[in-house]
Structure formats: structure tokens, C-alpha cells
Design goal:
The complex is a heterodimer of chains A (115) and B (113). Chain A is an all-beta fold and 115 residues long. Chain A contains no helices and eleven strands. In chain A, the strands form two sheets. In chain A, strands 2, 4, 5, 6, 9, 10 and 11 form a seven-stranded mixed beta sheet that branches. In chain A, strands 1-3-8-7 form a four-stranded antiparallel beta sheet, with no helix packed on it. Chain B has 113 residues and is mainly beta. Chain B has no helices and eleven strands. Classes of the chains: A mainly beta (115), B mainly beta (113).
Chain lengths: 115, 113
């Protein structure tokens, strides 16, 4: 089944403790992206990657790192998490949706709480 | 950068009524405008999109209209059903590969049986 898989689904951590949220897609998509969702703010793009070893900042990249060493994986790294990074995170990849247009496929989300 | 404003933030309708959600964007270079539906506990899913060379697009009960001059676009859902209840997001992007996609704040749609 074509899908974007994020792990973990829920994560509680403490300030300053490095963490990684993994994202994997099995559709051979070149484009992948990370978003955070906060009430009243919608989804805001953190980082995106157009292909392997090609990454760029989105609208809210501060405090985050990403890497794209292989096409299928795009992990999100928080080197020193802070409480303002408590949020719902989504990974997405872009490819053909079967209707002739490209579309974003989203993962199921990772709810992160930083205490 | 791009700024997308979405209204209303909540919308409540009776089953069978129509629902309209509106978005405005700031970057005149934006040329791709998708709409996403997010059900509880799930990631957003694309429901319809429109490119700037088209003024309207329909897919069964949903339609999107685009006014490039005014820089606004709208989602129209006719004959609403309870399963249409969800959070809806509009988005805008410039460029053919939409590297950066800017989302609106979201609209919580509730359809009452």
C-alpha cells in the first residue's frame, strides 16, 4: 500500500533532550516536506526536500534540522527541544495522485509534547 | 513571503445545505491552490485543486473558484452530508514544483443531520 509512515505517533520528552521523528515513503517520491500544525495557525512548513541531499527551509525552520540521505527517508531532528515546539507534526511526500495531477500525501502525524 | 488568510474559522450547516469557505493570498506569483480535508486523527488529504490558468473546477459536490485579480479562491460544497464534517485547509504555492506551500488557518466544518 502506498503510504507515508511517521514514527512515533506520540512522543513526550523534556526540554533539551535531542529527538528524531522518522518519516518514510514507499512511493519513490522525490519531494518530501515537514509541517507543524497548531490551533488557529493551520499547517506551517518547516523544511522541504526536492531530492536526495537537497533540502531547504520552509516558513518556520528555527530549532529543527533535517537530512535526506536516501530518497525514501526524511527524518526531522530537534537538537534541543523547547516547550514552544510542542505541536502536531506531519510529514508529506509529493507524487502523482492518479488523476493526472501531482498531490501531497500526508502521514498520520506525530503529537509531540515538550515539558 | 506568501500569506494565506482563511475564513470562517468555524462553519456549521444543516445536512443538505451548501458550505462556502474563502481564502485570500498575498503573492501574485502563486499559481497553484489546493484544498485539503483533515478528519480527526488523520493527516490532511487533497480533495480538489486549481491552477491559475483556470477559473473554476468541479468534482461532484465540491467546486473551487479562483479570482486572480482579487487574489482569492473559494471552496464550495453542495448538498452537504455529515461525513463532510472535518477541518478544511486551503493552500497556495508559486512555481510548478510548489516547493513552498503556504496553508490557511483552517475551517472546522460541522454538518448537522
Amino acid at each position: 500500500e502506498a503510504q507515508v509512515t511517521q514514527n512515533p505517533r506520540y512522543l513526550i520528552t523534556v526540554t533539551g533532550k535531542k529527538l528524531t521523528v522518522t518519516c518514510s515513503q514507499n512511493m519513490n517520491h522525490e519531494y518530501m516536506s515537514w509541517y507543524r500544525q497548531d490551533p488557529g495557525l493551520g499547517l506551517r512548513q518547516i523544511y522541504y526536500s526536492m531530492n536526495v541531499e537537497v533540502t531547504d527551509k520552509g516558513d518556520v525552520p528555527e530549532g529543527y534540522k533535517v537530512s535526506r540521505k536516501e530518497k525514501r527517508n526524511f527524518p526531522l531532528i530537534l537538537e534541543s527541544p523547547s516547550p514552544n515546539q510542542t505541536s502536531l507534526y506531519f510529514c508529506a511526500s509529493k507524487g502523482w495522485g492518479g488523476t493526472g495531477d501531482e498531490k501531497l500525501f500526508f502521514g498520520s502525524g506525530t503529537q509531540l509534547s515538550v515539558l | 513571503g506568501e500569506n494565506v488568510e482563511q475564513h470562517p474559522s468555524t462553519l456549521s450547516v444543516q445536512e443538505g445545505d451548501s458550505a462556502v469557505i474563502k481564502c485570500t493570498y498575498s503573492d501574485s506569483a502563486s499559481n497553484y491552490f489546493p484544498w485539503y480535508k483533515q478528519e480527526l486523527g488523520k493527516g490532511p488529504q487533497l480533495i480538489i485543486d486549481i491552477r491559475s490558468n483556470v477559473g473554476e473546477k468541479k468534482d461532484q459536490r465540491i467546486a473551487v473558484t479562483l479570482n486572480k485579480t482579487a487574489k482569492h479562491f473559494s471552496l464550495h460544497i453542495t448538498e452537504t452530508q455529515p461525513e463532510d464534517s472535518a477541518v478544511y485547509f486551503c493552500a497556495a504555492s508559486a512555481g510548478t514544483s510548489y516547493g513552498k506551500l503556504t496553508f490557511g488557518q483552517g475551517t472546522i466544518l460541522t454538518v448537522h443531520p
